[in-house]
Amino acid sequence: MALLRSYSNASSGMGVADHCKDTFLELQRKKTHRYVIFKIDEKQKEVVVEKTGGAAESYDDFMASLPENDCRYAVYDFDFVTDENCQKSKIFFIACCKQGLNPWDRDVPLSPWIGMP
């Protein structure tokens, strides 16, 4: 599975830190996190983990964790029950830029994430 690349993307020069993949796999397989928030480290020119939310945290906790004045990437593990009463989980990748911010004013390249399935 080539979810997150740990090397620079040729088109943006932006890479993804190795611990991003490990943290995502903890969310996906071990269910130790409800969400992971990623940010761009301007000095290292790579995407790094900014914050993780515990398995018991809610969507409101996730939304409150996003910064008011900056754009972020996030992965959220959403649990739900189907009409057939089956417990399911879906993982969402989110590129978030809060209302009032211009995403084009901020360098928010999606090219480091191109390897996602």
Give a brief outline of the structure.
This protein has 117 residues and is of the alpha+beta class.
For the record, the CATH class is Alpha Beta
Gap between N and C termini:
8 Å
Radius of gyration: 15 Å
Number-wise, the strands total 5
- Helicity, in percent? 10-25%
Q: In CATH terms, what is the architecture? A: 3-Layer(aba) Sandwich
Q: What's the mean pLDDT score?
A: 81
* Proportion of residues in β-strands: 35-45%
The CATH topology is given as: Severin
- Give the count of structural domains: 1
Number of helices: 2
The CATH superfamily name is Severin
The profile of the biggest β sheet is: 5 strands, mixed
Stretches where pLDDT is under 50 for at least 5 consecutive residues are: 1-11
Shape: globular
Lateral strand order in the biggest sheet: 1-3-2-4-5
Order of helices and strands: EHEEHEE
